[in-house]
């Protein structure tokens, strides 16, 4: 006899761990299957920090989801007693007409979000590590800050287990098929039957969701840690914001305060400058020329940061062509399969609300959250 569940969740990274948690908390019998161990560094949810913010330059349609995500992150911290969110404030810097500044302002105004506009002089006065050009401005948001991805995933796994989900690590799904009113899921160890399947594959979407018809691009991204000239004291989160900085050529970098003590420096990265890869072929070695390019970009806007290079690590983005997410019932299997993928390098701040949405979709077929923007049919060549 195959073990039977209400829902099988495939992939227990950022999104899948949240889905397993929300489903189990609502009383569903949940099996979570993960290819690697708990909280690993081979997908998209590692590296110590992620930016969170509400004045969302990508599209104002994300704002209601962010407001809910902030509430859920707060309760996740409370329920698990883990250090997850540090709302140290954030600046979106660039020319006034840049997407980073103008787009953030548009969302702030549309949703009446607390924010301040700072000119270059005021940016330098408040945040002396930042050296904008005279024609650059910033939107400052006090509620922006950072999230700790490993602690987030660990917290959701902890709560899922507390609510009696079965979580199987090092047990990848090999394939699945429709079976009776639900699905049958195969691993090397076993075959499981379930009413519902929720697939949260991260960078494995091109392999696990070929039938979705979405042209994903998986991208290698690099995170860099530097020891600032003069030490980390000015970079401490009590007085240093997170930042996203777009230059006149449209290149965006983003970075964090020094959150892990004086020895571990501060993290910075290019937002969208990856090269295509696959989870199997990604080059995990970071070259000197890449470190030099990062240091060069910083020399203009945070000149004290690239004092001494400490380390680098790679991570993957799963991009859709329009960089909006895919969260929906699977158009080819609308009765029994739900998908969450294509988070395009900006999904982490949404993790708990995506978990809530996936639980809604799997258990009721619908959700009250606004997810119209994330319908995969907008991208697929194939008819649904
Ligand atoms: C360098 C970097 C910086 C980022 N910065 C930010 C930021 O500042 N703010 C922000 O909001 N977002 C940011 N993001 C994006 C965010 O981290 C991702 O959108 C999010 O982590 C994606 O979560 P996921 O669950 O889709 O993927 P993952 O966490 O990778 O989870 C997918 C899981 O599926 C598992 N899996 C795959 N195949 C199988 C199988 N066959 N069977 C079982 N399990 C399987 C994998 O092992 C993996 O654990 C960043 C991403 C990167 C890489």
From TrEMBL:
<keyword id="KW-0963">Cytoplasm</keyword>
<feature type="modified residue" description="S-8alpha-FAD cysteine">
    <location>
        <position position="315"/>
    </location>
</feature>
<keyword id="KW-0274">FAD</keyword>
<dbReference type="InterPro" id="IPR006076">
    <property type="entry name" value="FAD-dep_OxRdtase"/>
</dbReference>
<feature type="domain" description="FAD dependent oxidoreductase">
    <location>
        <begin position="6"/>
        <end position="361"/>
    </location>
</feature>
<dbReference type="InterPro" id="IPR036188">
    <property type="entry name" value="FAD/NAD-bd_sf"/>
</dbReference>
<dbReference type="GO" id="GO:0050131">
    <property type="term" value="F:N-methyl-L-amino-acid oxidase activity"/>
</dbReference>
<dbReference type="InterPro" id="IPR045170">
    <property type="entry name" value="MTOX"/>
</dbReference>
<dbReference type="Pfam" id="PF01266">
    <property type="entry name" value="DAO"/>
</dbReference>
<keyword id="KW-0560">Oxidoreductase</keyword>
<comment type="function">
    <text>Catalyzes the oxidative demethylation of sarcosine.</text>
</comment>
<dbReference type="InterPro" id="IPR006281">
    <property type="entry name" value="SoxA_mon"/>
</dbReference>
<protein>
    <recommendedName>
        <fullName>Monomeric sarcosine oxidase</fullName>
        <ecNumber>1.5.3.1</ecNumber>
    </recommendedName>
</protein>
<feature type="binding site">
    <location>
        <begin position="6"/>
        <end position="36"/>
    </location>
    <ligand>
        <name>FAD</name>
    </ligand>
</feature>
<comment type="similarity">
    <text>Belongs to the MSOX/MTOX family. MSOX subfamily.</text>
</comment>
<comment type="subunit">
    <text>Monomer.</text>
</comment>
<keyword id="KW-0285">Flavoprotein</keyword>
<dbReference type="InterPro" id="IPR002204">
    <property type="entry name" value="3-OH-isobutyrate_DH-rel_CS"/>
</dbReference>
């Amino acid at each position: 006899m195959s073990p039977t569940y209400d829902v099988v969740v495939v992939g227990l990274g950022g999104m899948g761990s949240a889905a397993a948690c929300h489903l189990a908390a609502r009383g569903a019998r949940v099996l979570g299957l993960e290819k690697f161990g708990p909280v690993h560094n081979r997908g998209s949810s590692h590296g110590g920090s992620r930016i969170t913010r509400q004045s969302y330059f990508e599209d104002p349609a994300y704002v209601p989801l962010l407001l809910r995500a902030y509430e859920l992150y707060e309760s996740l911290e409370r329920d698990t007693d883990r250090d997850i969110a540090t709302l140290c404030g954030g600046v979106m810097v660039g020319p006034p007409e840049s997407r980073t500044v103008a787009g953030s302002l548009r969302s702030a105004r549309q949703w009446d979000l607390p924010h301040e506009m700072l000119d270059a002089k005021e940016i330098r006065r408040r945040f002396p590590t930042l050296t904008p050009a005279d024609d650059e401005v910033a939107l400052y948001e006090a509620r922006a800050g950072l999230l700790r991805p490993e602690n987030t995933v660990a917290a959701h796994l902890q709560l899922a287990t507390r609510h009696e989900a079965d979580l199987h690590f090092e047990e990848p799904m090999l394939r699945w098929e429709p079976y009776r009113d639900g699905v049958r899921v195969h691993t090397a160890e076993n075959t499981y039957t379930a009413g519902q399947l929720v697939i949260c594959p991260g960078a494995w979407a091109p392999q696990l969701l070929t039938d979705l018809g979405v042209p994903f691009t998986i991208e290698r991204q690099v995170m860099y840690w530097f020891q600032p000239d003069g030490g980390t004291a000015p970079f401490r989160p009590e007085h240093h914001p997170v930042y996203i900085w777009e230059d006149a050529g449209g290149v965006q970098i983003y970075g964090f305060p020094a959150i892990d003590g004086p020895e571990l420096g501060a993290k910075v990265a290019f937002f969208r400058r990856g090269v295509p890869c696959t989870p199997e072929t990604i080059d995990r070695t970071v070259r000197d020329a890449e470190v030099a390019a990062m240091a060069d970009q910083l020399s203009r806007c945070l000149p004290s940061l690239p004092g001494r290079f400490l380390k680098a690590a790679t991570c993957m983005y799963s991009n859709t062509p329009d960089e909006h997410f895919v969260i929906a019932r699977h158009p080819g299997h609308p009765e029994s399969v739900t998908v969450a993928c294509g988070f395009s390098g900006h999904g982490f701040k949404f993790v708990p609300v995506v978990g809530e949405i996936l639980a809604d979709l799997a258990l009721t077929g619908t959700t009250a959250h606004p997810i119209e923007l994330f319908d995969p049919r907008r991208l697929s060549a194939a008819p649904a």
